[in-house]
Amino acid sequence: MTDGPPAPPEPQERARIYDQGFRRYHGARTGVGGAVRSLVKHSLRQSLGIGRSARYKLVPLPIIFMAFVPAIGLIALAALIPVGTEDFLPTYAEYYALVVAALYLFAGLVCPELLCNDRRTGMLGVYLASPLDRPRYLLGKALSVMLLLLVVTLGPPLLTLIAFTLQNEGPDGFGQWITVFLRILASSAVVGAIYGAVGLAISASTDRRVVATATILSVIPGSAIVTDILVNDGGMSPVLRLANVMFLPRALVHRIHAERGGWPLGENPTWTLWLAFFGWLALSAGWIWYSYRDLVVQR
Amino acid sequence: MSNSTIVGKNHLHLNLSDETIPGGWETLVESDGPATERDCGRIPVVFGNTGRAMPDSTPTAQRPRSDGGTQTPDGGLVQAESLVKRYGSVPVLDDVSFTIKRGITGLLGANGAGKTTVLGLILGLHQPNGGRLEVLGRNPWQAGPEVRARIGYAPEHHTLPPDLQAAEFVRHVAELHGIPPEEAKTRSSDALWLVELGEERFRPMGTMSTGQRQRVKLAQAIAHDPEFVLLDEPTDGLDPTQREVMLELIGSLHKDFGMNIVLSSHLIDEVERVCDRAVIIGGGRTMAEGTVAELRGTAAETVTAEIDADPDQMVALVAALRGSGLSVRTDGRRLTLAVDDRSDSAVDKALDELRDRCLDHDLGIVRLGRRRLSLEDVFLEHLR
């Protein structure tokens, strides 16, 4: 039974505005959290050259590829060799030795890109005129650097773990798998944090990107050379090796994976390694804050 | 005529039928009365007297805001009392007091007068060394993020990230001010169309002219719909044509969208042209404040005359005029009368006095003029 066709809607109800052009905004706002999220998103896009011409992708993408090459090679090797003869393959902790160059190259690229550019192009003034204040701006930048470095510190070992697991050569049992996974996660965070912190601290000292990149690429391996000379040739205390920011994170990765090793800091007690790690983080954070606290934004 | 679609300049697309509009479509098109507001469904749309749909232009003051917009107790957007700001031992602002009300306010001062410092204080970027400042009812130094979320700011510098597309830049700034990402994308396009950069919005900013970059800065300042906009030297580096376009845009932002604007400039004529009010800063102090008309009224009107007289006769004439209570300056055969009361009757009285004293001394008036004062005269007078 029907009551006939439904009555047509009132004329006013049928009227629709499809596009009004610029207008006032009365919707909800995302607050300071939204500002930090936007800063992180924009920073990630900026560093990876997303939304920019091809030349902005020329440097970051090959470095990321460099970090993944050993992982892909190991996976291929593990698939080709007979089961039971894979002992010569590096452990997860040893993997970082293969990609250390890519890691610090990436740190030397992204940290200046994210901090120096903002000061040079006037974006820092635009950010500080938004709901972001200096601590939140620096927090957003630190998060961005950490996420970017995790691409190269976490991505390859995680890929290796998953591939080995699929090839039936991964950890035995679920509990063991989770343990390895958490160790990879912690190792990646440690490596990313220390390279990121040092990279940001150096980048906070200048608005010249090239100067910052050159300094980062000199200071990180330079710390290894200087401490090695002082301890080996100068006969000074091995404690000085804790200033070796290049190999300190690698030594910590070995301890996280419950392995000895991590040359040249293999003989240093674990607690001193952690102390040095947090010392580097605190020193870097302090320097960054000192550089930005009273920075007068000229542009 | 049912289901007609209008594609207006401001991208307003309406799907209308005769039944939608009381009296029908033809009535609307031919209407030549004052602008009327018709209820289109539940969305108010303002129709201009030509029948073209226009942007919803209800002034901000009449609009409810989701974030509970507030004003200073006297209804101003910004209220400053005896502000002091020093950089180290260098004083920049010594005693600056002003009120910024709704409308377009010019912040006028010579280069280095402290205009950008005032903007920085309003944004909560600097802590004042003394005095009191309230922005939208809050102390900007203590509530910086909340205050800045409701302010749009176009900085003076021209260096924007060269590799970044204009649309991405404007969208990013809108997101920073709390606009959700999808809405920010739409609004960035709309803002760039509004400043007539719609076709150029995907161009990297490094390839844009100075005029286009200034308009991008304007777009990013308004995209998040702030309660008021701070524009720091928005015509800096523009040629006369671009300057005209920029000033028209600024004027239309207030007229069409009810936006409140603070225009910082050292160019008096542009403040005089687009601003309702002005604050003049110099020597670290507020020199004058008020509506442009009021400010013009704070200075004496001048009457200039060239007299056919020798020096002795000029001395006698000046003495006679001063004896009548007039303020007189001379330069050879030329004299200038300053009339503090700018009413027509006072000026007429001064003219009558000049005529009578010239008759008394049997002198002829060669040239006579009354100078209409501009804001520049006020500015220069305060500087003196």
Please give the number of β-strands of chain B: 18
The first-level CATH class of the largest domain in chain B is given as Alpha Beta
Helix proportion range of chain B: 25-40%
| Largest protein interface, residues of each chain | A-B, 51 and 67 residues
| Tally of DSSP helical segments of chain B | 12
Named at the architecture level, the CATH assignment of the largest domain in chain B is 3-Layer(aba) Sandwich
The span between the termini of chain B is 67 Å
Radius of gyration of CA atoms of chain A, rounded to a whole number: 25 Å
What general form of chain A does the structure show? globular
pLDDT < 50 runs, ≥5 residues of chain A: none
The percentage helix of chain A is 55-70%
What sequence of helices (H) and strands (E) makes up the elements of chain A? HEHHHHHHHHHH
CA-to-CA gap between the ends of chain A? 74 Å
What strand order characterises the main sheet of chain B?
A: 10-11-12-8-13-14
Strand content of chain A: under 5%
Can you summarize the main beta sheet of chain B? Answer: 6 strands, mixed
Q: Number of folding domains of chain B?
A: 3
The proportion of strand residues of chain B reads 25-35%
Structural class of chain B: alpha+beta
Poorly predicted sequence stretches spanning 5 or more consecutive residues of chain B? 1-69
Please provide a written account of the structure.
The complex is a heterodimer of chains A (299) and B (384). With 299 residues, chain A is an all-alpha fold. Chain A has one domain. Chain A is built from eleven helices and one strand, in the order H-E-H-H-H-H-H-H-H-H-H-H. Chain A has helices at residues 11-14, 31-48, 60-80, 92-121, 123-128, 134-153, 155-166, 173-203, 209-233, 248-256, 270-293; one strand spanning 16-19. In chain A, helix 10 (248-256) packs across helix 11. Helix content of chain B is 33%, strand content 28%. Chain B has helices at residues 24-30, 115-122, 144-148, 166-176, 181-194, 210-222, 240-257, 268-274, 292-297, 311-323, 344-360, 375-383; strands spanning 4-7, 13-16, 36-40, 43-47, 53-54, 78-87, 90-100, 104-108, 130-135, 151-154, 228-232, 260-265, 277-282, 285-291, 301-308, 327-331, 334-339, 364-371. In chain B, helix 4 packs across helix 5 (181-194). The radius of gyration of chain B is 26 Å and the shape is elongated. The N and C termini of chain B lie far apart (67 Å). The model of chain B is unreliable at 1-69 (pLDDT under 50). Chains A and B meet through helix 1, strand 1, helix 2, helix 4 and helix 5 of A and strand 2, helix 3, helix 4 and helix 5 of B.
